């Protein structure tokens, strides 16, 4: 779920897998690759979605496979999957579709060179995409809406982005 802890069974399995997949006989090199991969995943999730992928609060269920067998984990998941609170509904599918579309918009904003430094919220509300947050100028405001509207599935964009009145008060501002 998150960066693996050195010496745990999950870490050892990951290192063994990397050694087998890459044909390595150098365990230190494989360990380095596992750490590099975990760091890259952590950074990517933080940059694109503003979350730490190892944060257990992001998940409905967290099972530690270093302490529980895979079979025990599978049984717990199957038992919980049958509970009413985990059953799909039209409303839950709609919420999930909205979250997915919002994540796609945030990823598009992060990966587009003209909006890579624009850090705003993108949420679906009543069938429209709402952009909110603060941008540097009108050009960033317009460009963020343009990039967001180009994402497949986005219909109407409600651009609620606010333009900074004074940027020089913030040392991290781009101007």
What does this structure look like?
It contains 5 helices and 3 strands. With 175 residues, it is mainly alpha-helical. The protein folds into 2 domains: 77 residues, no CATH class; 74 residues, Histidine-containing Protein, Chain: A, CATH 3.30.1340. Helix 1 crosses helix 2 and helix 4 crosses helix 5. It is flat. The chain starts with 8 loop residues before the first helix and ends in a 12-residue tail after the last strand.
- Tally of helical segments: 5
Low-confidence stretches: none
Order of helices and strands: HHHHEEHE
- Largest pleated sheet: 3 strands, mixed
Helical coverage, percent range:
40-55%
The overall pLDDT average reads 87
What is the beta-strand fraction? Answer: 5-15%
Strand order of the largest sheet: 1-2-3
Number of domains: 2
Which value, in Å, is the CA radius of gyration? 21 Å
Shape: flat
Q: Would you count the extended β strands for me?
A: 3
Overall structural class, as computed from helix and strand content, comes to: mainly alpha
Q: How widely separated are the two ends?
A: 39 Å
